[in-house]
Design goal:
The complex is a heterodimer of chains A (584) and B (233). With 584 residues, chain A is of the alpha/beta class. Chain A is built from 17 helices and 26 strands. Chain A has a 6-stranded mixed sheet, with helices on one face. In chain A, a hairpin with a 6-residue loop joins strand 18 and strand 19. Chain A is globular. The termini of chain A are far apart. In chain B, the strands form 2 sheets. In chain B, strands 2-1-5-3-4 form a 5-stranded mixed sheet, covered by helices on one side. Chain B has a two-stranded antiparallel sheet with strand order 6-7. With 233 residues, chain B is of the alpha+beta class. In chain B, helix 3 packs antiparallel against helix 5 and helix 5 packs across helix 8. The chains are: A alpha/beta (584), B alpha+beta (233). The interface between A and B is large, with 64 and 57 residues.
């Protein structure tokens, strides 16, 4: 075991973590811990764009962007945070360009922009070109660019270290416990500031666009430290996952002119969202796709998918703007999108909920937004909340660079103002050591893979796009059984070096913890809002439910739900922002 | 279809040398080799060790030697191999940590050696830095690189010389040297204009064949050679 000392420890090396590291690197001693090599982080899989009202292609303003984000969130997004993000967006994107992001360009050399779902001009009039992009590999180039900037600034990386706990002394977060995958050693990192940028948790679902690594580790560890998770019931299903595989096909495909068609070739989104059609927000399109399928208009022999039609686009447009997704369709489905439509179905994509934070990335732990000292979070693990009940496409990458930077700045300030580090308690790694020993000591029990598969199936069947009291009650029962069974998992690999079998077992425990808060929060919310569609409570109920859910969990897996007010700043200043029915 | 999968195994805590292990498994032609490995690991042998993450060819974690070629396990389908026999080994040219996991620290050191970041010492403008679509196009193919290592670890010049920067690092050098916004091209040329850099590339084209993102790596290295010759000699 080693003891490492740094001013700041950032866990996770996607865009949020790296952006924070870039911000703090010149002023503090920063370490970034990641269970993968940083360039393997899932931010790199983002395709279609990162948005800002740059107005490079047509008139646009941050206030229009804020309106779309508020409306897209089904009014659950905190309007102070949304205002911060949308106002900062043009600066943030220009800064990313200055760092070296190789954006696609307009004829006059500016950053090119294209339309994306839910982004409109003049408060909903028509789709607007707001998404800045680099073909359909925007996340990849942003991830590489920020990693490059970290190399330039000599940030210290601890790659293939799995964080397993945070260290807390007298209510102050002062470090983490990490497992070095290569050696199997447990290390303690002592720091003045700890930041979670651990990403999302889509792997709790059977069909997902998320990477194997997206197991929501940060969420479960926060829960164990009596930090609530906010708005966990809101899980985004992206409309266009490759049929059966769930691999993402960017919304940019529709931004470039692609359309969704049912079995008879009908462009059904014209009926559901007459103004923006195929560029309606994701929650709505996913629901309408399922509606088409359930009413017998799905495509294919089993009538269980929808066609994404790009055949009317020019070959040049597909090759220059959508090369990656075109390759995915060819490789994984054997479909050439320039000749035939791509079979797609909704796929679990993004977590709107997470660890509650304020606009400076500080973790807040109750209804009154009380700050937990020493602790920050940003990115998909966090809930600021700018996405509310449904995120708009391209707002996620923006969220990462805006709030990653703000967290970085705030941590620097905190480090400068804080004299010494809080000491690590002598038993800080006790929980982790006992846990690892217990898993490795068991020689009989169930394999991890089997329980994980049942969890993924349970979440898919009961807690995906449509939910009812019945499906959610079933999921509540199932998750409790899975929790009991997961106490008796057995791993084959008993070794110390690169034991991925052991890591799978630890990740499964994390998945069960946050999945339970997700199910219980969904069960509790008796309305439909954004991505949370209850078939037994079909409408939005602002009178009773215009509030954030907070869900705590105790050691035995019992949950408790509380609520937090939604910040309505913009609606108090501008009548356009007052909640009304969402129509597109 | 029933597959015979031979996997090169090495557990540093037990084995003195690597050995092959044979597995029989049913698989669909459209399954990824990564799916096959996952099912073997999850259903029959938890000790089987490899890296993975995105599972669709964008993160670069799972490059390995599959039937004699460096490929990503997640973009190689069972049907692509045109055989019911699959042999999976760690990528050659790097120390093996365990089973299919190789130590890529030398690969990353070489990446870091070419100043892999944009250098522009002018104060940034109020807007973005403008770049023509043509100038952007010049670097676009090189920016597709996911740094999986399949190229460098299929390169005989790299196998033969531990100090050779290798195709991935040279491609990264190209990405910045040909970026119209960058000002450190001359420094990077100093780093690569020698027999541990550009001139160790004998245009064998293994890198081109290995690249899962279909980047013509050799073309980019040749462009660097031409630039050096026209500007320096």
């Amino acid at each position: 075991m080693a003891r490492f000392n740094h001013d700041i420890v950032i866990v996770g090396a996607g865009l949020a973590g790296l952006r924070a590291a870039v911000e703090a690197a010149d002023q503090c001693d920063v370490a970034v811990i990641s269970k993968l090599h940083p360039l393997r982080s899932h931010s790199g899989a983002a395709q279609g764009g990162i948005c800002a009202a740059l107005g490079n292609e047509e008139e646009d303003y941050p206030l229009w962007h804020a309106f779309d984000t508020v409306k897209g969130s089904d009014y659950l997004g905190d309007q102070d945070a949304i205002e911060v993000m949308c106002n900062d967006a043009p600066r943030a994107i220009q800064e990313m360009e200055h760092y070296g992001v190789p954006f696609s360009r307009t004829k006059d050399g500016k950053i090119a922009q294209r339309p994306f779902g839910g982004h409109t001009r003049n408060y909903g009039e028509a789709a607007v070109r707001r998404a800045c992009y680099a073909a359909d590999r925007t996340g990849h180039v942003c991830l590489h660019t920020l990693y490059e900037q970290c190399i330039k600034r000599k940030v210290r990386f601890y790659s293939e270290f799995q964080m397993l706990d945070i260290c807390e002394t007298d209510g102050v977060v002062c470090g983490i416990v990490a497992y070095e995958i290569r050696t199997g050693d447990i290390h303690i990192f002592n720091s003045k500031a700890v930041m979670f940028a651990t990403g999302g948790y889509g792997r709790a679902y059977k069909t997902t666009s998320n990477a194997h690594a997206n197991t929501g580790d940060g969420l479960a560890i926060a829960l164990r430290h009596h930090i609530p998770l906010e708005d966990m019931e809101f899980v985004q299903f992206h409309p266009t996952g490759l049929y059966r595989l769930g691999i993402l096909v960017t919304e940019g495909a529709r931004g470039e002119g692609g359309v969704l068609r049912n079995a008879s070739g009908d462009r059904f989104m014209e009926r559901y969202a007459p103004t923006v059609k195929d560029l309606a927000p994701r929650d709505m399109i996913s629901r309408f796709m399922y509606q088409e399928i359930s009413e017998g208009r799905g495509a294919g022999p089993k009538k269980d998918y929808i066609n994404l039609d790009l055949t009317h686009l020019s070959l040049k447009q597909i090759e220059s703007k959508l090369p990656e997704i075109s390759t995915f369709a060819k490789i994984y489905l054997g479909v050439d999108p320039s000749k035939n439509p791509i079979p797609v179905q909704p796929t679990c994509h993004y977590a709107m909920g997470g660890v509650p934070t304020n606009v400076d990335g500080r973790v807040v732990i109750d209804e009154k937004n009380t700050v937990m000292p020493g602790f920050w979070a940003a990115g998909e693990v966090a809930c600021v909340s700018v996405h509310g009940a449904n995120r708009l496409g391209t707002n996620s990458l923006l969220d990462l660079v805006v709030f990653g930077r703000r967290a970085g700045k705030d941590m620097v300030q905190f480090v400068k103002e804080t004299k010494g580090k809080m000491p690590i308690q002598s038993d800080a790694d006790k929980y982790v050591k006992e846990k690892l020993s217990a898993v490795l000591a068991r020689n009989t029990g169930e394999p991890v893979g089997k329980i994980r598969e049942e969890l993924q199936q349970t979440m898919m069947d009961n807690v995906s796009v449509f939910r009812t009291e019945e499906t959610l009650s079933r999921a509540c029962l199932e998750i409790k059984k899975l929790r009991e069974r997961a106490k008796n998992t057995v791993v084959n690999d008993k070794g110390k070096e690169f034991n991925t079998d052991l890591l799978d077992a630890l990740e499964l425990d994390h998945m069960i913890d946050y999945s339970q808060t997700l199910i219980e929060s969904a069960y509790n919310r008796k309305e439909s809002r954004g991505a949370h569609a209850r078939e037994d409570f079909k409408t939005r109920d602002d009178q009773n439910w215009l509030k954030h859910s907070l869900c705590w969990m105790d050691e035995s897996g019992h949950t408790q739900i509380g609520y937090k007010e939604v910040n309505m700043k913009l609606s108090q200043e501008n009548a356009k922002f007052v909640p009304k029915e969402r129509k597109y | 279809m029933n597959l015979e999968v031979t996997i090169r195994r090495f557990n540093p805590e037990i084995d003195d040398a690597a050995h092959d292990e044979l597995y029989h498994i049913d698989a669909e032609p459209m399954e990824r080799v990564l799916d096959v490995l996952n099912r073997l690991k999850w259903e029959s042998d938890g000790t089987l060790t490899y890296r993975k993450s995105c599972a669709h060819g964008v993160c670069g974690s799972d490059a390995m030697l599959i039937n004699g070629e460096n490929r990503l396990a997640c973009v190689t389908l069972v049907k692509d191999l045109k055989s019911t026999k699959i042999k999976i080994e760690p990528m050659p040219g790097s120390p093996v940590i365990k089973d299919l996991v190789v130590d890529q620290s030398a690969f990353w050191r070489k990446y870091e050696a070419v100043m892999p970041y944009l250098v522009n010492n002018d104060p940034p403008p109020e807007t973005e830095r403008y770049q023509s679509a043509d100038d952007q196009f010049l670097i676009e193919e090189s920016t597709k690189c996911i740094l999986c290592g399949a190229c460098t670890q299929s390169c005989p010049s790299s196998w033969g010389d531990d100090e050779y920067l290798g195709p991935a690092a040279l491609l990264k050098a190209y990405r910045f040297i040909f970026d119209s916004r960058d000002q450190a091209g001359a420094d990077r040329l100093n780093i690569i204009d020698n027999n541990k850099g550009l001139w160790k590339c004998y245009t064998i084209f293994n890198c081109v064949q290995a690249c899962p993102k279909e980047i013509d790596v050799t073309k980019h290295i040749s462009a660097l050679k031409r630039k050096v010759v026209s500007e320096r000699y």
